[in-house]
Every structure is written in structure tokens, then in C-alpha cells.
């Protein structure tokens, strides 16, 4: 069951700071580091255990699993990186299931706007729409969930025009967290 509880200032500051750091590194290097995500997950679990015992452990564990699950399919399809998945898991460990779903939905909406604006600015909106249709067709045929060639991913992330093609999800997650907090959804 989705448990909606008020999130402490400590939790919001911890998640906000880590998400901001992840957004900066994702925008700069197109990478969300394990040195950030693993401690985020562990401290979220630890915090809730210390504050609420087994109830807190359950709250944080379900949030972690839910946060992980929100992006796992997109990772399998090649749409986001593993760091993004672990970041959402860490966010979930701190803010719980219902709240991480709110952050994910806000982030996904902001990501959609970002894609359209970036496509218009770069003159690649039609190309992006066609690629999205191809990815949907691949998902329907089951091809989207086949293993990705790591060399191809690395080459994509290091090409000179990568800023026009890659969209850092951690930045959208930071904006989604801010939006849901400001709108009182957390």
C-alpha cells in the first residue's frame, strides 16, 4: 500500500542536495556516480530505521524498490543510465513510495517538455519523434530489452554532438523533486 507521510526537513535536504549534485554531474559528464547513489540509498534506509524502527525500514525499502522500478524498464530499453535508476532508488529510500512516484511523474513530464524544446532548438524534433516510434516498435517486438552493446553506449556518450542527443535524467529528477516539493505533493 502506498504510504503517504510527511517527509522531514532532514530527508528533503539530504535528497535535495544529492539530487542537485547528481544533476550537475549528469549535465556536465553525463554520469551519475555510484559514490553518490549508494550512500543515498544506504543513508535513507538507515535514517528511517533509526527514526521509526521496522516501520521505517519497511517505508524506506518499499520506497527504494519503487524508485528503482520507475526507471528499470527505461534502463532496459536504453533510455536512461544505471545511475539514473540508482538515483531514483535512493530518492525513494528517503521519501517513500507515494512521494517517489510523484517525483517520477513530475520528472517524466518535465523530461517530455525538455525533449520537445531541445528538439525545436536543435531542429531535431521530427527525428526524435521518429526515433520514439522506432523504440515503441522495438518494445512491442521485444527487441528493446536485449542487451545493449557497451561500446555503442560509450561512443554515443562521448561524441562531440552528444549534448544535442542525450538528455540527463538526473536534471529532470532534480526539477521534479523541486516541483513536487513546491506544489506541496511531498
Pick out the low-confidence regions: none
The proportion of residues forming helix, as a percent range, comes to over 70%
Mean pLDDT: 85
User: Helical region count?
Assistant: 8
Domains, number? 1
Q: Secondary-structure element sequence?
A: HHHHHHHH
What can you tell me about this protein's structure?
The protein is mainly α and 186 residues long. It has one domain. Helix content is 80%, strand content 0%. The protein is built from 8 helices and no strands. It has helices at residues 9-29, 34-76, 82-95, 97-122, 125-141, 150-158, 162-165, 169-182. α4 crosses α5. The protein starts with 8 loop residues before the first helix and ends with a helix.
Question: Key features?
Answer:
186 residues, mainly alpha, 8 helices, globular
Concise structural overview:
Helix content is 80%, strand content 0%. With 186 residues, the chain is mainly α.
